[in-house]
Amino acid sequence: MNTTRDQRFQAEAQALGYSFDGEIRPGGHYVPLVRDGTTIYVAGQVPRVGDELVFKGSAGAERSLAEAQKAAQVCVMRILALLQRALGSLDEVKSIARMHVYVQSAAGFNQQTEVADGASGLIARVLGPEGAHARTSVGVFQLPKGATVEIDLIAIARH
Amino acid sequence: MNTTRDQRFQAEAQALGYSFDGEIRPGGHYVPLVRDGTTIYVAGQVPRVGDELVFKGSAGAERSLAEAQKAAQVCVMRILALLQRALGSLDEVKSIARMHVYVQSAAGFNQQTEVADGASGLIARVLGPEGAHARTSVGVFQLPKGATVEIDLIAIARH
Amino acid sequence: MNTTRDQRFQAEAQALGYSFDGEIRPGGHYVPLVRDGTTIYVAGQVPRVGDELVFKGSAGAERSLAEAQKAAQVCVMRILALLQRALGSLDEVKSIARMHVYVQSAAGFNQQTEVADGASGLIARVLGPEGAHARTSVGVFQLPKGATVEIDLIAIARH
């Protein structure tokens, strides 16, 4: 790839049609990420852009698979934006260790893997092969504010 | 703060009206915490005091938001009690890396962030600014024994 | 124990009646495990043997407690198979830090601890006392492809 990770991040933001330039605020009494050595624990992110939760409702009922995948991508863009700010550049991400994907699921909806693939694909496009990660996807009953998806992860910094 | 963390832990126990002096037993075939270097993985805790599960039922149906917040605080007190015993004192906790908060949620209940704030606020009161953590809160369908909340976390020890 | 861990792994596979000799493929766009130093993050595993998901349906409705426990054991056998391949032998596992057990649960089913004990017991039989781990068990609404159980864990390698 001839582009940098930070350029590809911007390209993904444009493709999604959202800006991730503003402050990424957590919704409660906690911090968006904690660093211990080179291990970075990123807080669970819902598909919020600015102050607006852009995907609410359960996958398989109010939300289609395609919408849930896009919701997962917005969650991951927030995580990448947080890592970019904490590290200065996404080039400083050495690897993504584990991602947890929580999908608000209607009865009988069991395409959580496919929803999570939306997030994993975006990470691969931005970070390249180093973005390959272990992943767990589950279908939960409710999420904060009615969010369609929530994602957290553990990233490893180069230095 | 002129008090020690261990003193503030006792003050929180008194405010909740529960004692966390007894043995903190896990409910199954596992151990309450595992240490790897300075990283401490604490097992999921439900709001049990001694042998009694003090908060059962789902938030938004059998349990109010205020009760679910108190349930979350009991879970965190158990975690702090486990860390205190393992490390000798809560002063030996360097940071809290990540907390997962699972709230047994009724249909339409989406105040998982507010429930988790009950736990995060208690950690801040006891540990001070070093207790700031990354957090993920989700609404699950069922929890062991009907518990209202279950919380686990990763703590970092000073030494 | 006079047998090796790898021998006990084979004995458990025979007792379950499944072979874990084939490739263990993840179901989506991610990798089965990521290693960072001696910390190994294993992706969430469902009870799949080869290409077949051998336990579908929710515990407490389509699946009994005994079946859900066996499903949990199949998940853990997949994890052990992955660790065995990555490390050459299960003797290279120093410890299991944390296990997350997600049980697809029917309304009113709250024996998630007992389901997870099926998995923890198998780990104890294969790895011995070093396999003792912190654990979190929750009851989720849906799982990928309708799986009865999904399990992930963090293992620590000796070297």
Shape of chain A: globular
For the largest interface in this structure, which chains are involved and how many residues does each contribute?
A-B, 28 and 34 residues
**Cα-to-Cα separation, first versus last residue of chain A:** 23 Å
* Structural category of chain A: alpha+beta
Query: Rg of chain A to the nearest angstrom?
Result: 15 Å
Helix content range of the residues of chain A, please? 25-40%
- Biggest pleated-sheet summary of chain A: 5 strands, mixed
Low-confidence stretches of chain A: none
Figure out the total of helices of chain A.
Answer: 3
Features:
homotrimer, 159 residues, alpha+beta, 5-stranded mixed β-sheet, two-stranded antiparallel sheet, 7 strands, 32% helix, globular
Can you characterise this structure?
The structure is a homotrimer. Chain A is α+β, with helices and mostly antiparallel strands and about 160 residues long. The first copy, chain A, is built from 3 helices and 7 strands. Chain A has helices spanning about 5-15, 65-85, 110-125; strands spanning about 35, 40-45, 50, 50-55, 95-105, 135-140, 150-155. In chain A, the strands form 2 sheets. In chain A, strands 1-2-7-5-6 form a 5-stranded mixed sheet, with helices on one face. In chain A, strands 3-4 form a two-stranded antiparallel sheet. The longest helix of chain A is centred in the middle third of the chain and has 23 residues, at about 65-85. Chain A is globular. Chain A starts with a helix and ends with a strand. The relative contact order of chain A is 0.24. The model of chain A has no long low-confidence stretch (mean pLDDT about 95). The interface of B and C includes residues 28, 29 and 144 of B.
